[in-house]
Each structure stands twice: as structure tokens, then as C-alpha cells.
Amino acid sequence: MHVPDGFINAPVSAVTGVVAAGAVGLSLRGARKELDERTAPLAGLVAAFVFAVQMLNFPVAAGTSGHLLGGALAAILVGPYTGVLCISVVLLMQGVLFADGGLTALGVNITNMGVVTVVVAYALFRGLVKVLPKKRRSVTVASFVAALVSVPAAAAAFTGMYALGGTTYVPTGTVLTAMVGVHTLIGLGEAAITAATVGAVIAVRPDLVYGARGLTAPLKLRVGGELVDAAPATSPGRARSPRKVWITGLVASVVLAGFVSFYASASPDGLEKVAADHGMDKKAEEHAAANSPLADYGVQDIADGRLSGGLAGVIGVAATVAAGTGVFWVVRRRRTADADAAASARAEETV
Amino acid sequence: MGAGHAHRLYRRGDSPVHALPPHCKLAAVLCFVLVVVATPREAMWAFALYAALLATVAYAARVPAGFLLKRLLIEVPFVAFAVLLPFVAHGEQTQVLGLSLSVDGLWGAWNVLAKGTLGVAASVLLAATTELRELLLGLQRLKLPPLLVQIASFMIRYGDVIADEMRRMRIARESRGFEARGVRHWGVLAKSAGALFIRSYERGERVHLAMVSRGYAGSMPVIDEVTASRAQWSYALTLPLSALAVCLLGWFL
Amino acid sequence: MTPPAPAPEAASAEAPSLEVAGLAYAYPDGHQALFGVDFRIGRGERVALLGPNGAGKTTLVLHLNGILTAGAGTVSVAGLPVGKRHLAEVRRRVGIVFQDPDDQLFMPTVREDVAFGPAAAGLRGAELEARVREALEQVGMAEFADRPPHHLSFGQRRRVAVATVLAMGPEILVLDEPSSNLDPASRRELADILRSLDVTVLMVTHDLPYALELCPRSLVLSEGAIAADGPTRDILADENLMRAHRLELPFGFDPRTVAAGA
């Protein structure tokens, strides 16, 4: 699913770039709570794992290429924020080192394969863990389902971007069918590997699975032959304030709303076909030919009422994230006025 | 980093391109790709000029053409898509060798192929002339957030560890008479993935503890300061600047 | 980059190099490794920590510089309590040499590896160079500065590992199984180096003759607690104590007939 340079037009690349930068910015902030000294290398390992997993490429008919994504694994093992960072690093290094995925398409790639998979997988995972009985087995089951759904979700997101900013006009329905169809199959493989890995890790080192942090029993210490209660370890997963959970949920639902409303209105490609048959495609063709990278934002589709809903959703998300990032940078800049203070603060937080 | 400081894409050498500070090279490649992507796809001659620019760089870096072309194979999955575009795209059709092809699709295929290939070639040249460790230092100097650099450096270290453990586990499996053949054995392979994860983690964890014990707090300490002189910057930026000139010509001609 | 924070409470000159009190710890999977460890080591002492496999030696070592956080009890280094507040300073003062030098050496050249610690503490330029050269000379490896560590022999790698820690100017040197996998000549060279150093040494080992050779005093860690503390020669000669804690001398070795190390 790596999008090469010149595949998605400049405006959409730029917007997704902003979305991706915003998501990475938010994640950098959130990851400080998820990562401590012991788990920092875990993030690197997850990234390496995802890197290896993404190397298995299958060509997909109307998409670019299909492969396992690894977003669900990352989200469950190291937490959603760090998960986004891991995938972003993988995509960056693939772009720079192996030229897999264009550098100018980095925003598209990070948004699709990093943000969408992680958000979908983690939301689903958390929900399932809450609903299922509090056992380790449930974590494995939840990770299977989360991984299974996250891959076609990313494929759908890709189709959305392609419909908005593809440099070549291919009917959305064709892209959607091909991408989601193939990626549902890939999702099965992804689910098997994710569940097996999470299951193995939780059996041996439950302390390494972020998503299972609420499940460990309180520890006892034997001091001088007597059992005393150990001070309960603080679990970062639980320690978040309700406000932050609320904000995260909101952002996630806005992202989902954007894509879902887009599909609710755009998926009946039969309509498109009818339009084409009746000569309405002439207009679209004209715009498609004027398809330089700086062509207007989604011209061929913007007149289409069916799309405006989805478009509005995505623009809304972009604006939200952009504003959020702006606030974040301002806050951060004020905070980092004294570089040394910030550095020592970071050291303390990561420690 | 670790044993991973020399990677397969890297080609040892002492050319002027090898000697450039990594952040200059990174910036140059990024700007070059941006310029290429912003070029109108109808200006075919511009892409030929870009290819000539990259060939000059390859010559200066003493990277042989065969090496470069072999590494370009990485984009084959994208080519598979580009080839399909003329068949699935809509719009005005044209007849080529008795096949009905979409004009827009043909332009699209050309667009993806040309820009993709140039992007891949630029990245391959960067990887061929820059060591991984240098690349990470370069990213750090370009102000990539330290947490990302840290994850990237662990990722590269673990890449070697994983490959190593994978080999050992395969030997252990095979010496007990197991060979992965067909779908029936996927379960075993999926279980190995879990075991592989734990084993790799615990090996890397020990290295990490050793680093933390010596005061590592999230970013690699700067041991040898790499600073780029004005001359080095201008040398590195020759590539994107000449590309920019070509691109502007492409828009106005 | 975090420059070393100035020690908030100046360590008093009288404080012992290392003091451990009531230390208990259980791993997150529920396995408990330490059940209340107490001991203190004075400045300039060389002490061996003896114990069979699985006694909790490595777990204890990871508490000394705050990598593991005590479930109960305290650790202090030269009067400075090990905790989140003073972590950077504690890690500079406690130099741990891990069992496997391949885990310890992760930079492309010996020089960069030795420079890692001081550079992380904020040292730069000529000062850094001097510190690296000094540490390498102390272990007799100065001429290998530009070699990649994985091209050295095992014994040389362990000496470089010691240098990486010495370069940080530690208050106490903690060695985890320093003699493992060494041939007799490398073993003797390492012993000579350790004897020549002017720092407090805690040597974690089950190599009893090496402990007797280097350390006048020994602690026995068994089942997560200190079972004995005294002169090394007396402990090794106490057959009941030795048997009770699964410590065995090599065949034909009699501690009473060997001249103890000073």
C-alpha cells in the first residue's frame, strides 16, 4: 500500500502531510506516558518487526501493492501513541533507505498505514477487552479482531484519498473493491500473526504488553518471612485523565466519521457508472486531463454532492488536527524556552 | 550502531559524495524529490534532464550503473500498478496495437513511473553513499524529534538481532526435521513469530540496560561534531537547485 | 543531551560507597527474586558477592543504578539515595560491567564506545579525548582505540568494557561475573588491572578462587537474602555454610593453603 511519488496530487498530499504531522506531534506528546526506560527498546523492536512484516509484498490489481501492515501489533504492544510513532519511523526509513513509498507521499502513507490502522485497531481492541471477560485469552482474541479489521480500514482510507487526489481517474468503486477485497485477505494473515505474537508475549512477559497492563494481579512481597503488600505499580494505561481519553475518543471518531460519511455517500459506484454511461463523464474527463499536481483540490469530484459530506468530514479532521498541532507547538515552544530545563524534564519523564 | 553500521545498500567509498555531511545529503535528496514531483508530467524532456543529473551524481559518487539499476528493482510492485492504469482508467480512449487504452491512464502510468523511478534512484544513491549511523545523525541534526531518532536507531539495531535469531530458530526447526511447506505449516510459523519477538527483545534489552547504565537518556551523545561548511552545503544543494531550474523551465515552456 | 545535574545533596565523605537496606523485589510476572537484602561497603573496599545461579545476583546489580526500582527498601551510593531524582548522578557514580561484553559494546569503534558515557554526561572535545585515552591506558588497550570491538578477542573486549565504565569516573565498580569465559592469561591480566585501580569494587561471581584472589571480604547471597558476610578466606573454609548455599570450590582447591589477595 506504499504510495510512490506522483501518485496522489499535491493538495491531498499536503493535507495528509498536515494530518500526519499533527498525529505524530500528538503521539510524541502521548508517547512520553507510554514509554519508560524499559519499553523504549520495545518500540524499536516493534518497528523492526513491522519493517520486516511490511517487506512481504503482494501486487494488488488496482492498488499499488499489498502487504501486512503491523499497526494493530504496534498499538497493542506499545500503546497507540508509540504505535503511531513506530509505524511513522518505519515508513520514513523505508522511504529514505529503500525508496519504498515516495518521500512526498509520506503524509499519505503515514495517515493510511500508521494513523488509521492504529486508531481503528486500538479503539476496537480497548472496546473488546472491556467487554470480554478479564482474562489473558481475551487479549489474544481482541488483538485478532482488531488486526483483522484494521487492514481493510486502511485500504478504505487509501481509496478515499485516491478518490480525492488520485492523479489518474479510476472509478472509486473499482479501487475500493480491489483494495478492500485483497486487504481483507491480508487482514486474516495480519490477524494470525498479531494474535500469535501478542499471545506469546503475554504468556512470557505480560509486562511488555501495553494493552494488558490493567490485567496483572497486585504483587505481594515477602519481607522477613511475612507477606506484605507491595506498593501498586502505576499503570500508564489507567493513569490518564478522563479528559484526555475523551479528547482522544473525539479525534478518533472525527477521523472515522470523515471516512465513513465519505463512503456512505460515495460507495454506490453504480451511480457513477450511470453517470458515465449518460455522457456525464465528459466533465470529469476534462478535469482529469488538467491533472497537474497543482490542480484544484479534488475538482473532478467537488461538484458531486455525494462527496461533499465525506470531504467536509476530512477537511474538518484536518482543521481540527492542524489547530491541535498549532496549540501543541505553541505550548511546547513556551515550555522549551529553556532547552536544558526541557531536556532534563524529558530525561526525568522517560526515566 | 552495533553490527548494523554497514548495511547491504551501502557501498564503501571515499568519493566527494561520501564525504558530505549526512544532513546536507538528506536535505538535498528531499528537495530534489519535491522538485521532481512538482514538475508537470507533460514535460517529458525535464525528466530526462533529472535522470542526467542523477547520473552525474552517481558518477561523482563512483556508484556503478549496474549497482544502481539492480537496486531500482525495488519499485517493481509500483510498476505492476502503473502498467494496469491505462486499462482501468476512464476517459478518452486511444488504440495501441489493437488495445483500447485510456489516454489519461497512459499519462498516469508515465507520471507514476517517471517520478517514482527518479525518487527511488535518488534514495538509492543516498543509501549507497551514507552509513546508517550517519543517516541517523543527519536526521537528528535536521531536528527530527529525538524520540523518533531513538526508535529508528533501536529499529536498525533490532533488524540485525531479528535476522540473527530467525536464522538460529530456522536451524533449530530444521534440525528437528521441520520444513515450512504450504498453508498447513503457517500455524507453526505464526507461533515462531511470537517466540522470535520475545527472544529478540530479551537480547536487545540487555544492550539497552548497558546503555542506560552509562547515562543514555534517549539520544545518542555527540562524540564527533559534524558540521557542514558553506562549501559543503552549496555542493550538496547543487542537485536540487539545478533540478529546480529544470522544473521552472518545464512550467514556463 | 542532559548535562549532569549538580548533586543536590553533596555526598558526605564519610558515607559508605554503597549501602543497601531491606531491599526486596518481585518481577512483574510475579516471580520474587529479592527478599530483603542488607549490606554496606566502605570506600576503597574490594568485596565479592557470592551466590549460586538464580540467587538474585543480577537482579541485585540492576538495583544498584536504579534500572530496577526497589519494591521495598533502599539503596544509596555514597550517601545519595538511588531514585528518580538523582538517577543521572547515580549512574555516573556506579559503573556496571555486564557479564557479556557484546551487550556492553555497541558502538562502531573502541574509542567511540569508551566515549559514550562521558559524552552522554556532557563532555566534549579535548577533555573527552583525554578521558577516553586515560581509561584505555588503565586497561592497557590504548593502541586498539580505532578498532571495531567485535574484532577483538574476548579478553580484550572485557577489558574495553571495563574501560567504558572507568571513563565515567565511577565511585564504585560493579563487575558481573568478570572471569567468565576468560582463558587463564586473560584472567590474570584482568586481575592485575582490577588490583591497580583506586576505586571501590563489588565483584559478583561464583568463581570462588578469583574472589579469594582479589577480594578480602565476601558476601553470600542465597535465596534473595544475605546469608553470610565476612573475610573471604573464612567463608570459603566454612564447609557447612558453603554446602548450605550450593557453593562449591573447584576440585583440589583449598582456600587455607592459598595466599589471600590484598
UniProtKB/TrEMBL annotation, chain A:
Keyword Isomerase: no
Coiled-coil annotated spans: none
Ranges that cross the membrane: 7-28, 40-60, 72-98, 110-129, 141-164, 184-204, 245-264, 311-331
Membrane topology note: Multi-pass membrane protein
Domain of life: Bacteria
Domain PDGLE: 243-333
InterPro entries: CbiM/NikMN (IPR002751), PDGLE_dom (IPR025937)
UniProt keyword Lipid metabolism, yes or no: no
Keywords: Cell membrane, Membrane, Transmembrane, Transmembrane helix, Transport
Location in or out of the cell: Cell membrane
Protein name: Energy-coupling factor ABC transporter permease
Species annotation: Streptomyces cavernicola
UniProtKB/TrEMBL annotation, chain B:
UniProt-annotated location(s): Cell membrane
Keywords: Cell membrane, Membrane, Transmembrane, Transmembrane helix
Superkingdom to which the source organism belongs: Bacteria
Annotated TM spans: 20-37, 43-60, 72-89, 109-128, 233-252
Pfam families in UniProt: CbiQ
InterPro entries: ABC/ECF_trnsptr_transmembrane (IPR003339), ECF_CbiQ (IPR012809), ECF_transporter_component (IPR051611)
Membrane topology of the entry: Multi-pass membrane protein
NCBIfam families xrefs: ECF_T_CbiQ
Database matches in PANTHER family: SLL0384 PROTEIN
Stated name of the protein: Cobalt ECF transporter T component CbiQ
Organism: Streptomyces cavernicola
From TrEMBL, chain C:
Entries under InterPro entries matching the protein: AAA+_ATPase, ABC_transporter-like_ATP-bd, ABC_transporter-like_CS, ABC_transpr_CbiO/EcfA_su, Co_trans_ATP-bd, ECF_ABC_transporter_ATP-bd, P-loop_NTPase
Chief localisation class: membrane
Alphabetized PROSITE patterns for the sequence: ABC_TRANSPORTER_1, ABC_TRANSPORTER_2
One of the record's GO molecular function terms: ATP binding
Membrane topology summary: Peripheral membrane protein
SMART domains tied to this protein: AAA
Keywords (A to Z) from UniProt: ATP-binding, Cell membrane, Membrane, Nucleotide-binding, Translocase, Transport
Domain ABC transporter, residue spans: 18-248
Compartment list: Cell membrane
Record-linked Gene3D superfamilies: P-loop containing nucleotide triphosphate hydrolases
Superkingdom of origin organism: Bacteria
Similarity field: Belongs to the ABC transporter superfamily.
Functional note: Probably part of an ABC transporter complex. Responsible for energy coupling to the transport system.
Name of protein: ABC transporter ATP-binding protein
